[in-house]
Amino acid sequence: MNMYSLVDESVRCAMNIKTHKCRKSQCQSCSVWQSIQECSKDLDKWDKLEVQRLAKINFANKWDVERSYNMTNRVLKFLLALFIAGTIFCFGAAIKLSAEPVYVHHDYYVNDGIIRDKLRSTHRHVHDRDVDGLVNCIDYTLTFKEEWDKDMPPNHCQIVRNYQKTVFAKMNHLFVRVKLSDTGKWLYIEPQAKYDRRNYKMSDYWGWPKYNPQYNKLGETVYWMSLCRR
Description:
Helix content is 51%, strand content 10%. It is of the alpha+beta class. The chain has a four-stranded antiparallel β-sheet with strand order 3-2-1-4, with helices on one face. Helix 1 (3-18) runs antiparallel to helix 2, helix 1 (3-18) packs parallel to helix 3 (45-98) and helix 4 packs across helix 5. Mean pLDDT is 80; it is low at 94-99. It has two domains: 3-95; 113-225, Beta Polymerase, domain 2. 20% of the residues are buried. A hairpin with an 8-residue loop joins strand 2 and strand 3 (187-189).
């Protein structure tokens, strides 16, 4: 082992002790430490001093690099934890907010006089239609359907059920979809929405992820209307 190898091995041993990879109590039984001691015996006084000087310089440099790395690593871990916590908080807040209707007026609602009239009459006549002791989405939906059928084509209004139970949201809800002409686009309407607020579309009233049209179920209009008992 030459003088420079002796410096490198000395620095490596000192770093292992400093970083708690080794303990000083283990030095006597360590083959590397024993080799360093054996080689040091063959050096003269001035070479020993030079080895000590170079070892101190190299150790100081390596320790600065190690300390900088550890600090950078801690900062990155902290920022990652902060990002994850922020993401979880924002996601949780979004879920919580989506659990309630979003009362926002939308200016893009146009030519919707018929729908707003049906909402108005729905709120005027709604009551416990299925006699279950509650006035809820079922009663509003059945009432809207009856009000629509009075002077509009019955096949232009269908009852829709949305059932989802996911990590994003939970919904078990009844509402309607309507179209204003044979070739018109289906509009998914929340019958509980206020007629004087232009936010009655399901996507506007509940928002995502509370309302996800992927879970809409059609073809149940006859069944739900059969529940009307008064």
